[in-house]
Amino acid sequence: MAHEARKDGSHLELPVLIFGPVEIHRLQRELEALEEYLEQTAIREPGKQAPLPRTSRLLEALAGNNRFNLLVADERQELATFLKQIDHQAPVIHISFAADPSSAFMAKIVAWFRTNIHPYALVQLGLQPTIAAGCIVRTSNKSFDFSLRHHFYDHRQLLLEALGGASPQPAQGAVTVTGRQT
Fold first, then answer.
1. Long-range CB contacts for residues 69-76, cutoff 8 Å, separation at least 24
2. Which end of the chain has less neighbouring CB within 10 Å, N or C?
């Protein structure tokens, strides 16, 4: 999926606040709700319109970064088409952490993926407390385990040797586990 170009030739941008499929689906529902509201407003009697619904920070960021006016039907439609294409074609990277990462940390990760991997890469978060520290990264065809658990497992012989060398030897004449004196 190449950069999505607008009618004026500029490319659409996906803000780092919108980092995963969950946010894409939420934005699609919000745009549909806004579209329905504006269609209903057009058929109501003049002067009896309800106030315009509040838009989320994510939708405002997406519209603002791409200079869209959400009151213009063609621009809403273009935005909906863009979100649909992102939902179906953007690469999704699943990252599992031991604990919930901060939003600032996630913004840095998403920015890195969008700079180095794909401009519309989506990151799906998972929690897996058993990994202790680090993360596990999965794509549709690869898996990378950067967890402390995996590191200890790969180096278990070295760890056992280090622990074995540190254990004290029984002293001369001491009773061992077998019950015999040495």
1. 70/34, 71/38, 73/35, 73/38, 76/31, 76/34, 76/35
2. C
Choose the weakest-confidence range: 13-27, 71-85, 110-124, 155-169.
Answer: 155-169
- Region 98-118: mean pLDDT is 89
> What does the pLDDT read at residue 84?
93
Annotate 121-144 with DSSP letters as a single string.
Answer: -EEEEEE-GGG-SSEEEE-SS-EE
Q: Check residue 41 and give its pLDDT.
A: 78
Q: How many Å is the Cα radius of gyration of the chain?
A: 27
Compute CA distances 25 → 32, 35, 58, whole Å: 11, 15, 12
Kindly report the number of other CB atoms within 10 A of residue 110's CB atom: 21
**What are the residue ranges spanned by the domains of the chain?**
21-89, 92-166
pTM reported for the whole predicted model: 0.70
| pLDDT value of position 116 | 93
**Other residues' Cβ atoms within 10 Å of the Cβ of residue 11:** 11
